[in-house]
Structures are given as C-alpha cells and as structure tokens.
C-alpha cells in the first residue's frame, strides 16, 4: 500500500506559521511528543485492565534517543500504536476552522501554548526543529499491519507500509539547522528534566554507569564494578500522587531537596488532594524567608497529569502565597495552557479559593495544636499571613484568629489578647485604643524606653509588609489607631486630656523658642514648646504620623508618590519643664545658650540616627570641648 495526499489544514502556510510563532518556545516539541507517547502507553495499560487487550503488555516505557551524525531525534513507545486509517484521522487533519481566522487571531501572538492548545498542533510542534518527520507504527489491534508516514514540512505527506515489528510508535525527527542545539545529550537531558521529571511512565534516555557488587576480594571485602544501566530520568510516583497516610516527614523533606537542592529545609507543608468539584493534587511548602522576596517567587511548579507546564502560577495561586514552594497538579488545566485561559477558567478560580482555604486551615491547625512551635515559626510565616490578610478578604476572616502581634519584649499576642492587655493603660480620652509600634527598635530605643516608663507596650512592626498591615488594622479594628513610637513625645502619644503645668511664663516660652530657632536654623525643623514630665528628654525630634506613614508607603511603591517627593519636615519638641531649659534661661551668655540648645538638639537627632557626616563630627568636637 502506497498513498500520497495533502494534509487537511486549509492553508499551505501552516509550517512557516508554526516556526514563526512558536520559535521562542521551541523546546516544548519534546514535551509534546513524549506526552503523546506516555498517553499511548497509559491507554494500552487501561485497555488491558478492562479486558479489551489480551496481549502481553511487556515493559511499558517511552524512549528518547538521538544521533548527532545523522541529525535525528527519535521518540518511541510500546503503547497503542496506530493503523494507517488512524494516522489519516489523527495526524493528517489539523483541527482549526480556517486560515483567515488563524492568521487574524494570532498575527501578534507570542504565547506558543495558546496556539498549540487551541488548534491541536501538539504533534506538529516537531516541525519547529525538523525539516522532515517520519512515523513508524503498529497498532495493538488484531491483524493490524505496520504503517509508515513521512512529511517534509510541506502540506504533502506519504503513507505506506511500515517496518515496525512490535506494537507501538516510533517518531523520528530529521533536525534542521536551526534545531541543531537539540542534538546534544546535555540539552535533551535538560528539557526532559524540566518537563518530564515526574511522568507516570518510565522515560529512558540513553544509559548511565553505576557501581554494582561483584563478589568479594581476598580479604573478604565486597568488590564493585561499573556497569551500564538504563538512564530512567523520571520518578513515576512522586509524593503528590500518594495519600498523605502513606508518607512520612522524611518523604516530604527528601522531595523538597529534590525540587530545591540548595535550599534550607522548609518550615512545614500542606498536602493538597481534592477530586470535587475539580481535580487537584500537590504539595506546598512554607520556606524560610530571605530578604530578597523576588528571588523566592515563581517556585511553585504547575503540572497537568504529571507533565510540567509552567512555574508562572500567579493566576492559580493567590498573590500572597507566591512565596510558597512546591507543586500543583490538575488534569482540569490543559497541557497547552495559556494566560488567557487561566484568567477566564472557572476551575482555576475554584482552585485559587481552595488553596487559600487549605493554607488558612493548616495555619489555624498549627496554631491550635502547638502554639509554641507556631510562635517559633512566626518570624518566617508572618509575612504570608499579613500579606494574605491585606489582599484576600476571606483569608483575613480566618487569619484574624491566628495572626500574632509581637511586642519588643518578644511576647506574642493574638489580636484579642493584645486588646485585653493594653486597654487599661493605652485608651485615650475619646475611648480609643492606641497601639504603639516601632519599625526599628535599635534606632528608636530612646522613644521605646520613654513609652515603657509610662507603662505603654510597644509592638515590633519591622517587616516590609507592616506599613500596609498597620493601615489595615486601623480599618478593621474598632476604635483603634496605631502610632509609631517616635511620632510624638511619650506624653503626647496617647492623649488622655492630662498635661503637666508649665513652669515657664509666656515670655520665657517665647525666649526659649527664639534661642532654639536660631541655634538650629533649619526650615525643615519646626520648634514647639510643650509642658511635659520633667523626667522626659529636654528635646525630642518627631515626624507627624500621617506624613511619615505616607512616605513609608511611597518608599515601598504603595501609590503614594506625591508624598514621597515632598521634603522631610520634623517637629522639634522642647520640654519646657526640663531642668536644662531652666539652665539655658538662667545663663545670660547668648553663645552658651545657643551652644546648649544646639547640643540638646543634636542629641535628639543622634538618638534617631539623623545626625550624620560633618554635623556628627562637629557634635563630637563640641562635646569634647564642653567636657
């Protein structure tokens, strides 16, 4: 039997189009062909289990081989095979409705997966790297004859009698000049490791050497020899395909090392396993966080029936969980998935919600079952929890019971616990709770100590997400506001409608203000006199809470660019009741007055890390002279 024909695709430009549009992703040809071979192998196994095939299955596997001299790559399997009629049906007819629609829709396309997935071009991705493709195949059906198909990259093909003696299919790619990079053991191994590492059927790629025991030597010690064995590149039963009851912690940790060989051990993990209303399996790990979050993103791998698709999963996994590591596998997501598909598909939206719920449930379980262990992990998982509360309303509703607020004394509190702790002391005259926090305890230590002297507790809010988390708490918590510890002097942080009486007359207040204005001589620093506790510092430099918070958000790219461009302005609070002020007023020497005022101001700057460069040197020299 010999037959020639034309591939039914309604245009002669299909192969140039494939090469043009898919060139940036041309390595996926191997994924497509190996996946097809795996499907054929699994189908014959399924037919045998149903009693529809009674022959010997043999050692079911897929093999990938190449010949650099002949410039060929071969993918073979012992699966279903095809008859000549099936080749005509499945190979010679590409399912799309017309060249006009194709060209119009994809003239600007850059997403190879979208083109392949929409038009069923998986097999034809072979022509991205080959000038000629041959198929030798023998169907499993009784009495079937081997068949042969060849196409040289035009719309013409030949079909005839094949030479294959065993059931299965062998596809040979005659690699073109542009595809010669794939005629390399290293390059092919790289692609197989990327896409086929966990396929459910063994994938053989050449051989490898391993040490095997070969008797004993004269001293009775075992001898070893190097032998060549099949190089099976994949684990056909990765842990996410197993039930959690079958696995130990060691299994999860070993799998994590396999995925991320240079990473520290994860904190804990979540095993995903659901079959309704969608199919989803996987394992997600909580890693130990580093400062550079961007480096840790895109570490979740998306699979479809154990075939790797992508590690860009932001449409499947909620944004706040992009720092998680691990794998997700769903047959409901097509192999050739596109961004537009992910954004529109209802199953993807359900998967997103499910993962959010599973993470929340896992964290709640950890908190309730072993709070001490949970608190020990809080410095790593706090970013996940806070980011999730900010970005996902449903997650906030669950997480409000296990989010922790950490005090500068290293104590941890739930939101409810903290409210009970500080309410007696930190409620203002309008019956509002005031939470005080620091984002830099070493730099703001003087302010923290002043707050502690008044019995105030100070929270530690020093992660990149805390600026936004603080704003959310103010929106969510009833009659509660948050102030940074250096937003004002301790006496003014919580307005209780009380203030010490001033020991200065109005004339003295005016004089002191004039002395400090002249000594400081900086427009960005506005001097104000306050009647404070005599034990408080003589001078304190603060920035308005609202302005400082807007600037913090601008620095983080929070959409507050206007405030970020505004110059810094500070309030210089002079404690009129401090004995230093009385000393300044009691000295008639204006130079000494200015020197003392400048020294007190610089000390305030120094306590906040605002004194630098030449001004710091000048302060040190002046201090030495005063001594």
UniProtKB/TrEMBL annotation:
Quote the record's binding site residues for ATP.
32, 36, 77, 82, 97-98, 169, 339
UniProt xrefs under Pfam families = HATPase_c_3 (PF13589), HSP90 (PF00183)
**Domain Histidine kinase/HSP90-like ATPase: start-end pairs:** 25-179
GO-annotated molecular function = ATP binding; ATP hydrolysis activity; ATP-dependent protein folding chaperone; unfolded protein binding
Q: Which SUPFAM superfamilies match?
A: ATPase domain of HSP90 chaperone/DNA topoisomerase II/histidine kinase, HSP90 C-terminal domain, Ribosomal protein S5 domain 2-like
Q: SMART domains of this UniProt entry?
A: HATPase_c (SM00387)
Q: Which residues form a coiled coil?
A: none
**InterPro entries cross-referenced by the UniProt entry:** HATPase_C_sf, HATPase_dom, Heat_shock_protein_90_CS, HSP90_C, Hsp90_fam, Hsp90_N, Ribosomal_Su5_D2-typ_SF
Annotated family: Belongs to the heat shock protein 90 family.
From the Swiss-Prot or TrEMBL record, give the protein name: Chaperone protein HtpG
Say which species the protein is native to.
Answer: Mucilaginibacter mallensis
């Amino acid at each position: 039997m010999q037959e020639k024909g034309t591939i039914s695709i309604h245009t002669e430009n299909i192969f140039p189009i494939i090469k043009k549009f898919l060139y940036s992703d041309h390595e996926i040809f191997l994924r497509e062909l190996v996946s097809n071979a795996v499907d054929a192998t699994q189908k014959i196994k399924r037919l045998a289990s149903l009693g529809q095939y009674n022959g010997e299955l043999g050692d079911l596997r897929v093999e990938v081989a190449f010949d650099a001299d002949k410039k060929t790559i071969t993918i073979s399997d012992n699966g279903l095979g095809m008859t000549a009629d099936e080749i005509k049906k499945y190979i010679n007819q590409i399912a799309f409705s017309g060249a006009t629609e194709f060209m119009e829709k994809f003239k600007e396309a850059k997403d190879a997966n979208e083109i392949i997935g929409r038009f069923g071009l998986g097999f034809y991705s072979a022509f991205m790297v080959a000038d000629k493709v041959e198929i030798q195949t023998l169907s499993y059906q009784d009495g079937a004859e081997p068949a042969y198909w060849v196409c040289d990259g035009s719309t013409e093909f030949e079909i005839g009698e094949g030479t294959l003696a065993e059931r299965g299919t062998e596809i040979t790619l005659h690699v073109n000049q542009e595809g010669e990079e794939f005629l390399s053991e290293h390059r092919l191994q790289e692609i197989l490791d990327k896409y086929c590492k966990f396929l459910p059927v063994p994938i053989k790629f050449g051989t490898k050497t391993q040490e095997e025991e070969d008797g004993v030597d004269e001293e009775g010690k075992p001898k070893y020899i190097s032998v060549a064995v099949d190089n099976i590149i994949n684990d056909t039963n990765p842990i996410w395909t197993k039930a959690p009851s079958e696995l130990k912690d060691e299994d999860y940790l070993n799998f994590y090392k396999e995925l991320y060989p240079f990473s520290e051990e994860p904190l804990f993990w979540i095993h995903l396993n659901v079959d309704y209303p969608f199919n989803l399996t996987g394992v997600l790990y909580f890693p130990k966080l580093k400062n550079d979050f961007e480096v840790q993103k895109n570490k979740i791998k998306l699979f479809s029936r154990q075939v790797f698709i992508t590690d860009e999963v932001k449409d499947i996994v909620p944004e706040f969980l992009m720092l998680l590591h691990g794998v997700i596998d769903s047959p409901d997501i097509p192999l050739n998935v596109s961004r537009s598909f992910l954004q529109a598909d209802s199953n993807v939206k359900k998967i997103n919600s499910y993962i959010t719920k599973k993470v929340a449930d896992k964290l709640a379980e950890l908190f309730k079952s072993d709070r001490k262990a949970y608190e020990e992990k809080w410095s790593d998982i706090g970013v996940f929890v806070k980011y999730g509360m900010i970005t996902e309303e449903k997650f906030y509703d669950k997480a409000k019971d296990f989010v922790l607020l950490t005090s500068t004394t290293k104590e941890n509190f739930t939101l409810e616990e903290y409210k009970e702790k500080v309410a007696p002391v930190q409620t203002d005259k309008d019956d509002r709770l005031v939470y005080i926090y620091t984002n830099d305890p070493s730099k703001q230590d003087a302010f923290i100590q002043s707050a502690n002297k008044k019995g105030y507790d100070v929270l530690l809010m020093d992660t990149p997400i805390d600026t936004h988390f603080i704003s959310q708490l103010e929106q969510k918590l009833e009659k509660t506001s948050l102030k940074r510890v250096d937003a004002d002097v301790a006496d003014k942080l919580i307005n209780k409608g009380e203030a010490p009486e001033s020991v200065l007359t109005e004339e003295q207040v005016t004089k002191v203000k004039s002395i400090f204005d002249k000594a400081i001589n900086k427009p960005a620093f506005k001097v104000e006199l306050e009647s404070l506790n005599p034990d408080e510092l003589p001078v304190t430099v603060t920035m308005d809470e609202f302005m400082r918070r807007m600037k913090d958000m601008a620095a983080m790219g929070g959409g507050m660019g206007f405030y970020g461009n505004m110059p810094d302005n500070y309030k210089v609070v002079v404690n009129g009741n401090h004995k230093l002020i009385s000393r300044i007023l009691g000295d008639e020497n204006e130079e000494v007055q200015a020197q003392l005022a400048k020294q007190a101001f610089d000390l305030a700057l120094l306590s906040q890390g605002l004194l630098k460069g030449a001004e710091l040197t000048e302060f040190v020299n002046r201090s030495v002279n005063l001594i």
